[in-house]
Amino acid sequence: MKKTLVAALTVATVAGSLVTATPPAKAGDNIGAGIAAGLIGGAIVGGAIASSRPAYGGPVYVAEPGPPPPPCYWQRQRYWDGYGWVVRPVRVCY
């Protein structure tokens, strides 16, 4: 929902900037004020986007601790590795 709203707002902003009629520039116009307003507006919009929550994030649920896991032990097991029987220690947990 948030992405759709941001996309619609972006399209509306770009379309609005293309449609507006600008008067011809004259010597003595206050162009510096327009540049400053654009920079301030960009900083505000950029700050709002940067401080928004990332799309991949979400609530984090932490399970309550349960009973301790059963004990584990080491057992020697043999297996065929293709050349012969090999014995190795294996940790077995239930």
UniProtKB/TrEMBL annotation:
Signal sequence annotation: 1-27
Transmembrane segments: 31-50
Keywords recorded for this protein, A-Z: Membrane, Signal, Transmembrane, Transmembrane helix
Name under which the protein is recorded: DUF2510 domain-containing protein
Organism: Bradyrhizobium cajani
